[in-house]
Design goal:
about 425 residues, mainly alpha, two-stranded antiparallel sheet, 14 helices
Length: about 425
């Protein structure tokens, strides 16, 4: 059941009051979640799964998906409860945290949230820009144009194109474009699998090193992140709890299926000679063509569009935070929008230019510490606190994923991941 209705004035409306109802679609919201998830994670995944092998990494992948699915459902539950309590139709993630855990909790979470978003936006601009730079150079070579392409040309072009779409595009346009881009990702992904499946050697799937599984968790936590756009989804679907849940489940299942197949094909087709910190990216090998006509082009399209969809989702998530923080400080909508997108787009562009190798570092730290706290511990604690508050008024709602036992397990897993990776960073393990 919807909590409110999204309406706008319409000159062509046949209704007497001139209002038109825009009922968000589960499909559109699911593609936003899928597009946000499919980004740097799918490109980096084989880098860390290769040492462990196919079976261990696949089991961990399904487990990580389930963990992050519960996290997303918990955030939706908390967001919907806060929407009901405050009477607001749109409540961002940090506002949800503040209403659940207080101002201090919101400030601490905000710092982690902003760090994660900027780290991953830097990664997207860096990798997406590099692909565009290579494409521009190949284009000049194809037309025999004697002109050098600066290394940062692709970075600037990436920000101008996709940042411009976000800045000038309406919410409906961006949602529809994102749905189209997700379709392109899926289409190019299928084509990519078709071109590479012939290179698979089943004997490469026999590698199993279960002791190396724990090292993959930080990247898995980055690969399955979409929780930042859950408040956007609850707004799009008018607070309809059932439709929100379906959007989260369906939207996260698409990346799980793609990641699993992608992992199997790459681990079976690429002759691995490097490792994560060697800076070797298997998608770069695919973009090189592996001797097959058309493979390099398809791999480049898949990589670039996958990054673009995730860039859109994380930009919208960061925009939601900025709107919460500066809601009452700036009156002019135009000035506010310009300032917000300057804050969203310029820092990642500058940082990716200053440190091209920040991609690997950002992924590792964001997953191990940022995502474990913000999308592991915080959602469970929020729902726990809201349940305590609602019990006083007799309105507590328990779902299978919000029982105290499961909330405790969710918190415990995140704490273990943090402690283990802290020990690794300190050289204890």
């Amino acid at each position: 059941m919807a909590l409110f209705s999204n309406t706008e004035l319409s000159e062509n409306s046949l209704s007497e009051d001139g209002l038109r109802h825009h009922r968000g679609s589960v499909f559109g919201s699911a593609t936003l979640i899928a597009g946000t998830t499919i980004g740097a994670g799918i490109l980096a995944l084989p880098l860390v799964t290769m040492p462990a092998g196919l079976l261990p990494s696949t089991i961990l992948m399904v487990s990580s998906w389930l963990y992050m699915l519960i996290s997303g459902l918990l955030i939706a539950e908390a967001n919907l409860q806060v929407m009901q309590q405050t009477g607001r139709s749109q409540v961002g993630l940090l506002a949800t945290i503040q209403n659940s855990l207080g101002k201090r909790g919101a400030i601490a979470s905000g710092i982690v949230y902003i760090f994660i978003h900027y780290a991953l936006l830097v990664a997207y601009v860096s990798r997406g820009g590099n692909i565009l730079t290579t494409a521009l150079r190949n284009l000049y070579l194809y037309f025999s144009i004697p002109r050098n392409v600066p290394p940062l040309a692709g970075h600037v072009l990436f920000v101008i194109v996709f940042g411009g779409i976000l800045f000038w595009g309406s919410d409906r346009f961006v949602t529809r474009l994102n749905s189209l881009l997700v379709a392109v990702v899926v289409g190019s992904f299928i084509r990519l699998l078709w071109l590479t499946v012939g290179e698979v050697e089943i004997s490469r799937w026999s590698i199993q090193h279960w002791e190396l599984v724990s090292a993959i968790v930080p990247v898995m936590f980055v690969a399955f992140v979409y929780q930042n756009v859950v408040p956007v989804v609850t707004y799009q679907l008018e607070g309809d709890r059932q439709r929100v849940r379906w959007a989260i489940v369906l939207g996260s299942l698409v990346p799980l299926a793609m990641f699993s197949v992608w992992n199997a094909v790459i681990l079976g087709s690429v002759d691995w000679r490097g490792g994560w910190f060697d800076g070797v990216d298997p998608t770069e090998l695919l973009r090189g063509g592996l001797g097959q006509p058309g493979l390099g082009t398809v791999a480049s399209i898949f990589s670039e569009v996958a990054i673009a969809t995730s860039f859109i989702g994380f930009s919208l998530g960061l925009l939601s935070v900025l709107e919460d923080v500066f809601r009452d400080l700036i009156d002019s909508p135009t000035l506010k929008r310009t300032l917000f997108y300057a804050l969203i787009l310029l820092p990642p562009l500058i940082l990716s230019a200053l440190n091209p190798n920040i991609f690997l570092t950002a992924i590792s730290w964001a997953g191990a510490f940022g995502n474990s706290v913000l999308f592991g511990i915080v959602p469970a604690v929020m729902v726990w606190k809201l349940q305590d508050g609602n019990k006083i008024h007799g309105t507590s709602r328990l779902t299978f994923y919000s029982t105290r036992v499961l909330l405790s397990v969710t918190i415990g897993v995140a704490v273990l991941v943090i402690l283990q990776n802290a020990a690794i960073k300190l050289g204890v393990l």
